[in-house]
Amino acid sequence: MATAQTVTQVCGGTVPSLFSSKTQLSKSWPGPLSRSFVRHKRRNPKACIACQFLRHNVNSNSLQLTKCNCQRAESVSGLTPKDGWHGDNAKEYSATNGNKPNALEFEKSSSERVVLSSNGFFQKGIPQSLEDEAWELLKESVVNYCGSPVGTVAAKDTTDSNVLNYDHVFIRDFIPSGIAFLLKGEHDIVRNFLLHTLQLQSWEKTMDCHSPGQGLMPASFKVRTVPLDGDDSATEEILDPDFGEAAIGRVAPVDSGLWWIILLRAYGKCSGDLSVQERIDVQTGMKMILRLCLADGFDMFPTLLVTDGSCMIDRRMGIHGHPLEIQALFYSALRCAREMLTPEVGPDDLIRALNNRLIALSFHIREYYWIDMKKLNEIYRYKTEEYSYDAVNKFNIYPDQIPPWLVEWMPNSGGYLIGNLQPAHMDFRFFSLGNLWSIASNLATEEQSHAILDLIETKWSDLVADMPFKICYIVLKGVRRQKAPHAS
């Protein structure tokens, strides 16, 4: 439970406010913290960093000087976080310590200086925090349409000439950028993005003379400059959407419409501008997405049945069926839509279907997707080929489908939501976004949420280690997979 509170703040600190009108955006964490620092901070609220020269006061978000236990610090007593480390202070410090090598090495050039940023990192050259650098890169990726910002490109790499579709504005990729702009107070780009992508929803989209259902949102779009009709000397800008016709595998983006609804709710909560979500065209577009997702089919489950590559990335990942990520986004989008639909556009049958689906979906995920050591032992004792209304093994899961790595990897305390579930198949991979978004949207119960965070802490070296959080985790040591990626 040591990192449970911190991970909840990082992953869901601002997200719960998207669904509830009572919660407010929490203050962002002052800077990146390592796992060891988080654990030490919980034991000592004034945990030290940088050889205990500076103490971080969590309550006041301020930096305070303290005496170092390993090296003398009297010569820097006049230092303040605002002034930073200047060359003269560094020379005086080195002279006091006999020019001993230390962790705080400063530039010899007088034109440069080492500055302590507000997030607790020492940086060379012009005083600039990691956050400032990130904002510069993000703003360089902004795409303009008719003079107004409408999104950010998926990737900006000037050294690669083969950009494929990474110069497009992807709906799913813009979500973290859009939330960052909202927290910064830059609401216009998010508003433009929502309204322009809504216009693309009504475009005609066909593949081999077949058209998907109304309400499908594009996976991405690109701003193109084309000659104006009847005048070759003049040009105009158009938005060229991709609904999956050019994607790898030609799969339609199921998650785009769900992300669009979630971002629409976030925009209203952060900006206070509810006029966008109350517009007739926005209400109609939202209703079309819901009707597409809530349409009756042959499936017996409340989860959405999708093809491989329909979310996350358009690559083969073995997630065809009922992937957790889609179900978590589906649940979140339904809750957001329920708060935004107006009575005029949201008829009783749609609201009733939405509420019934929320109840059935939450029960299904919490009951059948959950896996821990106790549930693992139950699966080992499953009987197969059961035919009855009260069968224990409802999905006819064979015990030999449990991969050997899971038995060794699963901790005694903690658990998670599996990646996929369908008849005779369980995908035991740990998918990060699906589990974390289930926590943020309250799809997982409070007990399950704590158990997921306990597992993340216990398996930190596997799920995070020295890299960013992994998309999914599965042990591949000594295993060569020649079948589909989901095969055990």
Task: Describe the protein.
By secondary structure, this protein is of the alpha+beta class. It contains 15 helices and 14 strands. A four-stranded antiparallel sheet has the order 11-12-13-14. Strands 1-2-3 form a three-stranded antiparallel sheet, with no helix packed on it. It has a three-stranded antiparallel sheet with strand order 8-9-10. The longest helix has 21 residues. The two termini are 31 Å apart.
End-to-end Cα distance, whole Å, is 31 Å
Note the beta-strand portion: 5-15%
Largest sheet: 4 strands, antiparallel
Report the uncertain regions: 1-125, 481-488
Rg measurement, Å: 26 Å
Q: How many DSSP H or I helices?
A: 15
**How much helix, percentage-wise, in residues?**
25-40%
Instruction: Give the strand tally.
Output: 14
- The ordered string of helix (H) and strand (E) elements is HHEEEHEEHEEEHHEEHHHHEHHEEHHHE
- Structural class computed from helices and strand pairing: alpha+beta
The side-by-side strand order for the widest beta sheet comes to 11-12-13-14
Overall 3D form? globular
- Compute the average pLDDT: 75
